[in-house]
Amino acid sequence: MIVENMQVVAQEEIAPSIFRLRLSGDCAGEMKIPGQFVHVQVEQGINPTLRRPLSICDVDVENRELTLIYRVEGKGTKRLTEKRPGDAVNVFGPLGKGFPAEVLKEKQTAVLIGGGVGIPPLYYLAKQLVNRDVNVMTILGFRTAADVFLEKEFTALGETVITTEDGTKGLKGYVTDAFRQLPENAYDLFYTCGPKPMLQAVETAALSPGYISLEERMGCGIGACLACVCDLTVPDSQSGKKYRKICSDGPVFRAGEVMI
Amino acid sequence: MIVENMQVVAQEEIAPSIFRLRLSGDCAGEMKIPGQFVHVQVEQGINPTLRRPLSICDVDVENRELTLIYRVEGKGTKRLTEKRPGDAVNVFGPLGKGFPAEVLKEKQTAVLIGGGVGIPPLYYLAKQLVNRDVNVMTILGFRTAADVFLEKEFTALGETVITTEDGTKGLKGYVTDAFRQLPENAYDLFYTCGPKPMLQAVETAALSPGYISLEERMGCGIGACLACVCDLTVPDSQSGKKYRKICSDGPVFRAGEVMI
Amino acid sequence: MNRLQVNLPGLSMKNPVMPASGCFGFGQEYAKLYDLNRLGAICVKAVTIEERRGNPTPRVAETPGGMLNAIGLQNPGLQHVLAHELPWLEQYDVPIIVNIAGNEPEDYREVAKAVSQVKNVSAIELNISCPNVKEGGIAFGTHPDTAARLTELVKAVSQVPVYVKLSPNVTDIVAIAKAVEQAGADGLSMINTLLGMRIDVKSSLPVLANRTGGLSGAAIKPVAVRMIYEVRQHVDIPIIGMGGIFEVDDILELMMAGASAVAVGTANFIDPFACPKLIDQLEARMDELGIATLSDIIGRSVSICSQTR
Amino acid sequence: MNRLQVNLPGLSMKNPVMPASGCFGFGQEYAKLYDLNRLGAICVKAVTIEERRGNPTPRVAETPGGMLNAIGLQNPGLQHVLAHELPWLEQYDVPIIVNIAGNEPEDYREVAKAVSQVKNVSAIELNISCPNVKEGGIAFGTHPDTAARLTELVKAVSQVPVYVKLSPNVTDIVAIAKAVEQAGADGLSMINTLLGMRIDVKSSLPVLANRTGGLSGAAIKPVAVRMIYEVRQHVDIPIIGMGGIFEVDDILELMMAGASAVAVGTANFIDPFACPKLIDQLEARMDELGIATLSDIIGRSVSICSQTR
Ligand SMILES: Cc1cc2nc3c(=O)[nH]c(=O)nc-3n(C[C@H](O)[C@H](O)[C@H](O)COP(=O)(O)OP(=O)(O)OC[C@H]3O[C@@H](n4cnc5c(N)ncnc54)[C@H](O)[C@@H]3O)c2cc1C
Ligand SMILES: Cc1cc2nc3c(=O)[nH]c(=O)nc-3n(C[C@H](O)[C@H](O)[C@H](O)COP(=O)(O)OP(=O)(O)OC[C@H]3O[C@@H](n4cnc5c(N)ncnc54)[C@H](O)[C@@H]3O)c2cc1C
Ligand SMILES: Cc1cc2nc3c(=O)[nH]c(=O)nc-3n(C[C@H](O)[C@H](O)[C@H](O)COP(=O)(O)O)c2cc1C
Ligand SMILES: Cc1cc2nc3c(=O)[nH]c(=O)nc-3n(C[C@H](O)[C@H](O)[C@H](O)COP(=O)(O)O)c2cc1C
Ligand code: FES
Ligand code: FES
Description:
Distance between the termini of chain C: 34 Å
Order of helices and strands of chain A: EEEEEEHEEHEHEEHEHEEEE
CATH superfamily of the largest domain in chain A: Nucleotide-binding domain of ferredoxin-NADP reductase (FNR) module
Strand content of chain A: 25-35%
Number of helices of chain C: 9
Mean pLDDT of chain A: 95
CATH class of the largest domain in chain A: Alpha Beta
Radius of gyration of chain C: 18 Å
EC number (chains C, D): 1.3.-.-
Largest sheet of chain A: 7 strands, antiparallel
Bound molecules: flavin-adenine dinucleotide, flavin mononucleotide, FE2/S2 (inorganic) cluster
CATH architecture of the largest domain in chain A: 3-Layer(aba) Sandwich
Helix content of chain A: 10-25%
Subcellular location (chains C, D): Cytoplasm
Binding site for FMN (chains C, D): 21, 45-46, 99, 127, 165, 191, 217, 243-244, 265-266
Low-confidence stretches of chain A: none
Helix content of chain C: 25-40%
Distance between the termini of chain A: 27 Å
Shape of chain A: globular
Number of strands of chain A: 16
Structural class of chain A: alpha/beta
Strand order of the largest sheet of chain A: 4-3-7-1-2-6-5
CATH topology of the largest domain in chain A: Rossmann fold
CATH architecture of chain C: Alpha-Beta Barrel
Active site (chains C, D): 130 (nucleophile)
Main location (chains C, D): cytoplasm
Strand order of the largest sheet of chain C: 3-16-15-10-9-8-7-4
Oligomer: heterotetramer
Strand content of chain C: 15-25%
Radius of gyration of chain A: 18 Å
Mean pLDDT of chain C: 96
Number of domains of chain C: 1
CATH superfamily of chain C: Aldolase class I
């Protein structure tokens, strides 16, 4: 965990309201685990006050580059779009526990299911899995054709299915519609990130163990303020704890470990 | 009175902590009266909250350019130094009542006495007086030689005396020391702007009528909030009013009109 | 149909936005910038019987996300307001609310009586919450009984509806709101400023000559929302909401919390066109959010939450 | 001589900066970032007899210049804290302050008794000001008598000095401060959060699941300064000041107003290194301002102003 003023290398709108931000700095070298996130201070000072959690989407260790992909939601992300190459962005990270890529062996198959801005962290995961010679299958869900992003990048790494709610591209429907069509032995593990209802549906439909990544409003980002807790489905037998902190115990959890 | 996003043309540190900021925009054409000021919003949003009053230092109507000279005091002026060419600075103005140049006739003599960041508004005044064929004599006070600015510009317009508190340049002492040395008929009118103690000393030492420019912390800048009042020495015989608003009745007052 | 129309006792407002008392003088300055007829109403600076000199300067100080003021109710006095300010406002077809203050209950009564007889005055705002004067002001606004008695006194003489302006510097704002409602108040204005202070670390001295001042601006909005929401649950008379409105969503937020109209204070200093700009932005934002008419959203959070409680 | 040293009952602090309760857990997370021995003291999260689940999420919301939280005193409970958190802190040579809370006076007494016997606990902070729980918390902090009685109860069993943490959501904070001083409090902590609320205009619903929450951050600093300044004039026991400290000047401002030490809360979330950075900046700033030792400036504004009154 480092705090660093990273430098904007490039900023680009890759789909309506979806921006790709490339940052360079020493701490990129620390960002080794997909599914971890960084806590971004959009602006020095108090406007906005809090940092914004954004997932690590890609890391280029050699070039000391970190890529984030974010959707413009409110004040903070809006302000972030105004950053230009050369500007500084203060980043605190890497934070949390990410997706374990190492649980899969060579030639096993992972299915990655992502919706909206749940997609970015899956990209860095897919790259690492492919590096480990794991087969990667990806299902990406969007509202409509125009919203689609990262399709090319995922396709380069494995079979990639696009779903859109209005059917303007790929399968019409939700990611779970595509996910449910997979036969029982098609995958050994699933990894998913996206809106809550999607995570719930994926967890229900899954035929294998898997990992899910959660979101919650955060304060500190490192487990000190208890802003971001979620309930364990079964209290921890060792510590007796009934909850987990999404920022430090998560954001990635074993499917079934916590209540979504 | 206009509100406009002006564009930074240039920003330059002309003496330690003293910056010259050139802004371009349509409203420059409205800035006709020296001693008036603009209310500058340093940053969109709430950090800092309030606008900063800065005097009009020079206007180039043809090129739609407004020049401000400011000293870094606190948060707002600090932040202003970070503006680069092309950046927007929101300006509200021109505000207040300025120095009347028209009260002097050709060949009459004005003495301008400025201290520190009280100097900038006198420059635009000097230019207008010279345009009217009025003789301009200037006394500029600084702490030390390194702090001196606008000397060349004033010298081009008339006789210019520099005083420094430590004697490292020009006369050692205060502007009032130089001012007092002027013989009785050396000038027809004085104009002054600077810190309160200087204004008081100038008013006391003056052998002619004159005009002084005051400062006060401001809210609205247009006379609505009553943040910036000062007392009249004699209540207004017409309205019975006992006070003046520096932002709208001033910042320039006839010497003796208000309590300093 | 005017989607922005809101109706409160004495106030038929074509839009819910008025400048807040003390932030707009008597309108003459901002009238140089835009047509005051665009406003939903105008709330003028506090008026007292006698002229008031107010506090020494500096009277304002900046704080993070807000500002402190200690003007101290400077105003030209009742007679001057009756003779000059109110007649000047006759040229506008906008409801006028006169904010009134005093040292003694008797003072309030006298000002209320006189002002409420003026034909272009639509309502009185009873200022029992000014934190910047030694006598009167906030002293009347921190105890339910005192607030209620003053309200009764003023109601007894006022020809127009009376809105009581509440102080947020209290333990239990609901108790005060209920007391003034029972005492006959036609509406509430809330919130006035939070009592605050700044010290200049170079001199170790308070920045304000008056030492303490009233905190206003974006910083206090969450306190305003909370208080309006709490009061809305327990009181039936309408609320004029204020405190930190800078953006169009802030208007909606205060209205959803329970305000029937809103006042904009500090924002006028940052953007002198704040009021007309906010009014202009309202409809487009309502469209985005699917709000048919503004009156639909008044207290909407309170009613939704009470269903799910 | 250590220019940053300040001494309060039970607390010999090598610098005046501690993290504020609830913003630093029990230290373990920030210990990964820097050596906690750099801190002047550590104030841990509120401890209650039983484990508390706290409120549903979302528990935080952003506001202009500040934030709201409604954690709801989530903590692992007294036994767990005694068995794990406090022993873990033994590795540090820094005074530990334990913030305690409860539903009933009896709860406070029990926690105070147990905690104050732990050898590395230097002081207790009596939390009578949490705005985010239905029982206990703020209910004890809004009336002088209730606050005083609870203070007495806790003082009777505590082996270490007791600091009472006051709520700013009151009409008269001086009355409460005086009452707890008379009841034997060794010091005061002020201020806790201001009660606030945010509504999401898209849903018309409160952003926080708990609806209201406690406002902290830069926005509330002027309220903290004012309250500390007022209390300092009327009370002799030392004050731990907090509320919106983000910069080194904020520390000086709160101390000049009357605080003998300070706590940093929300700023830790924005800059996780906030505490050690502020500590590191203190001396240079003192040099610029000509401050010889920090203890010189405690309440300096109060004493200067009382001379010129
Ligand atoms: C671990 C984690 C990883 C994330 N990764 C990404 C990502 O890679 N790309 C992306 O587009 N978004 C991601 N999000 C969501 C992103 O954090 C929010 O969209 C963003 O904080 C919204 O900020 P804003 O200023 O636009 O909105 P505002 O409404 O101004 O935000 C106000 C406050 O609410 C918080 N907030 C609002 N929405 C969310 C949310 N959905 N989750 C958490 N906090 C929220 C903000 O952080 C801020 O504190 C992630 C969230 C978490 C928790
Ligand atoms: C009519 C007028 C004209 C001025 N012209 C110039 C000029 O041409 N060049 C120049 O350098 N300075 C000028 N000043 C002073 C300038 O406004 C302040 O130095 C500046 O506002 C300080 O802001 P800050 O953010 O640096 O300080 P901060 O301490 O952060 O300011 C905090 C608040 O106090 C106000 N404030 C602080 N000092 C002053 C002051 N001396 N006068 C008024 N308000 C103050 C700020 O505007 C702000 O609201 C003028 C002031 C007035 C009233
Ligand atoms: C400079 C100034 C002067 C004020 N004068 C008055 C006043 O005379 N009477 C009154 O009831 N409120 C007065 N107020 C309070 C405002 O009307 C309003 O309640 C408060 O500022 C909160 O709104 P805001 O955050 O939008 O400014 C004043 C506020 C400011 C900033
Ligand atoms: C997330 C969060 C949790 C808090 N928890 C507690 C608590 O358990 N006990 C307590 O007395 N104060 C608690 N507080 C209040 C702080 O200790 C402090 O009084 C307040 O936040 C003001 O300081 P700040 O503006 O520096 O944050 C909490 C504050 C925050 C932001
Ligand atoms: S954000 Fe503070 S504990 Fe997770
Ligand atoms: S600044 Fe508002 S009246 Fe002068």
